[in-house]
Amino acid sequence: MTLGPQRIVCLTEETTEWLYLLGQESRIVGISGYTVRPRRAREEKPRVCAFTSAKIDKILALQPDCVLGFSDMQADIAAALIRAGVQVTVFNQRSVADIFSVLYQVAAMVGQGEQGLALMADMQQQLVAIAKAAATLPRRPKIYFEEWDMPHISAIRWVSELMGIAGGDDCFPELTAQSLGKHRIIADGTEIIRRDPDIIIGSWCGKKFRPENVAARAGWGEVKAVQTGQLFEIKSADILQPGPAALTDGVAALHRIVMAWSQTYA
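^ thats the sequence. predicted structure below, dont judge the formating
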């Protein structure tokens, strides 16, 4: 007997990637248009939504027995589907611990709890190894992570936590508890200059990070990261999706940047 939902629509990328890793991609009947992980999902599955909008009729035509979403920003989509009689589960994970919790819940939903735990254990071992390497650093760099440029939006909680695991310290730790981007806006850009990050990492969801534009901002020539050329991009698909990508490729990219900085500037 096959357990759990058989026709799943994933409104965001992280559940799609996780179901593929679990070998359960045959259950997926629809995905987000922003999905790039795994790449083949775009070729194999119909795209039925953006992030805050969806083709409700197209989703209903797929006859899903489960729709998986993420965050309060998809509440309107969820409400429309619920009114149409569809089972909807919307997760709201914001921390690394939350992400692991959601991964287990999704694995259990499709009858793959044990396999999910095994894959999660591998991810946790990687995080432990990175944290141990980071613990040897003579100095931890201050990192400004920019989720959006105009206005400046700083790191969401899981990104801030992964920066800490990777060996760096978030320049705006007081904002990480804010779940919504509008509450992580840094209205006064001079405050970023004042905090003087050693490293700047950009991950502008939906568009390419332009380090030359950041360096050219008024007064930013005084920032250590700009003076030493420590401006980097991590693709939003690798770090801003609260799922396997952030816990593997995302944190690994952060760690490489921190370790390379340490070899020269610590």
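The longest helix spans residues 113-134.
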